[in-house]
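Example 3.2
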Amino acid sequence: MRLGLKNLGLGKKPIEEFTQADMARVARLNIDKATVTWRRVLDTNDRFLRALTVGQGPAEKGYNRETGFDITVASEIMAVLALTTSLGDMRERLGRMVVASDLDGNAVTAEDLNVAGALTVLMKDAIEPTLMQTLEATPVLVHAGPFANIAHGNSSIVADQIALRLVGEGGYVITEAGFGADIGFEKFCNIKCRYSEYKPDCAVIVATVRALKMHGGGPEVVAGRPLADEYLSENVELVRRGCSNLVRHIENIKKFGIPVVVALNAFASDTQAEQDAIKAASLEAGAFEVQVSSHHAHGGKGALDLAEAVRRACSGASSFDFLYPLDLPIKDKIWAIAKEIYRASDIKYSEEAEKKIELYTKQGFDKLPMCMAKTQYSFSDDPKLKGAPTDFVISVDDIRASVGAGFLFPILGKMPTIPGLPTRPCFFDIDIDEDGNIIGLM
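Structure, written as tokens:
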């Protein structure tokens, strides 16, 4: 409440001296219901919640509006949790969350609704990371879960702060950026590093023979369906073609001025010739080192060579920098990512996206970084376009504002923010037998 009054210029004025006009400003926000951007979230798959109408009850007459649900990991509060640097910072970020615009086009925030303090109380304990350990007793901090395809896709800054203090000077902290380097890593650099003020010393790309075969033109991989023979037997040419995808990721990371180590996760079906093809393509593209890692089979011992490669890469020179400055217009920042990271030839904006760009520029949010919501299956916004495509057009269907978290997120193509179930969901195979045992989970 106190910050809300301060934002209205009434913070120092005694309440008993409020005029009728002052009280009206506090009590009535004049929200334009057509501009409400706050969406409910749910941690489940339900495609019918992507778009719906609320306020149909008789007590809500006249306040019905179109809205939809997002998956929890796409919520702004999840992003706030991951990007906050302290409890006080989280309180400010929650207060800055924009929920709507008023009839004059001004942003209405959680602070204006006088709920930011209560939100912080609810999140007070969530700011503390969960301390776990590997099978070999290496500490692991697990904290926050924003997906990289529809959010910024990185673990929390608070976890990184704690980890860096624990390892001390000369220690090493490994932090994850989700999905491919075109989304998780790009957002790590352009969003997370801006707010944490940390600079990475090295990046590790995790690759597999099977994934590169898919990018080389291999058969479609469907969850629950046995892998095609191409993925289980040697096919060096398929691997070589798929390396175009890995090479693109290496090139992209090098644009940020840091060395790249490729971790080739070994499978029993891999052959030496296939692994050699990946090593050759990676080194030619400028990778610092390529190491085969067998930690899944051999534990920490199977990743020692990889760890040493990372140590050597971190000890060398790096010159980390962002891809774009924040003072660029919104469209220029989107174009910087689409051109330099995706290799798009053009961008097509919907009418809705154009309206949002105009609105957010007017409201002063145009200096925020971009968080592109995009399929994780391709450099483009078409999940079927594998490998390293070029000369394609990116479609920006909408742009949303996560002002509290600290970014705008353009939605590329038909990217749903809550998933739906497949044609044959896995629950078809789940049952219970006559002895009460659950079957079909694995």
